[in-house]
Design goal:
Length: 304
């Protein structure tokens, strides 16, 4: 597998929320969407193909949880050197799907770079598989399709939520207040308010292609519920020296750490990803997330 080249920008500025304008979808990427039979969008020179698990009814700690809260898989394509594409993705799978999908990917020359959880106490159990490949866009799509076509074909029965659990409803969160606290705007997706923040303080390349927020190099937080009783879940992209400060910040905020791992292989330096989940007043959760963002992209402490 080709190596990533990552360098810290001379002027260390942590990226703002992802806000690229829509672009016309190139013809070869239109072909990818048609071949895969899926929807997507093209921004920041990246085609992002949606692989949501709308077929699953998931509860987390007994609370019914909407798909945009953390169950929307994806694959993304961007152009590298010599017009070859780099493909990365994150597939959301039930435990029974993991190994059949993995075999289908490997048998068609797609790399699997990580497998892990994002939640505790979810029903049914859900796992996240990171994938990687490079080549012509049409060829990558053809190699991906057998695995993607397996997803959701034998979904488990819907989880039986406790009698007190209510269906996901229209949000009553004060999204403007959350954005003010976090310092970045987000996107409303049904009952979920999601803020995504890129790591543009890092210059990440593979085969000449820029690996940006839409390719998976990002930190995000999803909020659902009410202002008084909300839940948060998300992912933090970190350099090695940021891991322990972020862990301490989350735990001081009462937010649970769910997993620490990599998503990409061959990075130098290594990028770590941390998944978290918590409940409480929305403003308290937003303040906890803001505390994490304030730790990222800082210049190394001076040594004497």
């Amino acid at each position: 597998m080709s190596r990533f080249i990552i360098s810290v920008a001379a002027s260390v500025v942590f990226a703002g929320a992802v806000s690229a304008g829509a672009q016309d979808v190139p013809a070869d990427y239109q072909q990818v969407l048609t071949s895969l039979g899926r929807q997507g969008d093209y921004k920041a020179n990246v085609l992002k193909v949606n692989v949501p698990r709308n077929d699953l009814s998931v509860t987390v700690a007994g609370v019914k949880t909407p798909t945009p809260f953390g169950f929307g898989g994806w694959v993304a394509f961007t152009k590298g050197a010599n017009a070859e594409d780099v493909m990365m993705g994150d597939l959301v799978l039930t435990q029974d799907e993991v190994n059949p999908v993995m075999s289908a990917l490997l048998d068609h020359g797609i790399d699997v770079t990580a497998l892990h959880n994002h939640f505790f106490w979810e029903e049914p159990r859900v796992f996240y598989m990171h994938v990687h490949g490079h080549g012509a866009a049409a060829d990558l799509a053809a190699r991906l399709k057998p695995a993607l076509d397996m997803i959701g074909k034998n979904a488990p029965p819907a989880a039986a939520a406790p009698a007190a659990a209510a269906p996901a409803a229209a949000t009553t969160l004060d999204s403007a207040k959350i954005a003010q606290i976090v310092g970045r705007p987000g996107d409303q997706m049904g009952s979920v308010y999601k803020i995504t923040v890129g790591r543009d303080d890092l210059s990440v390349k593979e085969m000449g292609a820029t690996i940006n927020a839409r390719m998976g190099l990002n930190t995000w937080a999803a909020f659902v519920g009410t202002s008084e009783n909300a839940a948060i879940a998300g992912d933090v992209a970190m350099l090695a020296g940021e891991v322990t400060p972020v862990l301490k910040s989350l735990r001081r905020s009462g937010i649970s750490v769910v997993a620490i791992h990599h998503h990409m292989t061959g990075t130098d330096p290594t990028i770590y990803f941390l998944h978290y989940w918590g409940t409480g007043p929305a403003e308290t959760l937003a303040t906890g997330f803001r505390g994490v963002l304030d730790l990222l992209g800082k210049p190394p402490a001076a040594t004497h």
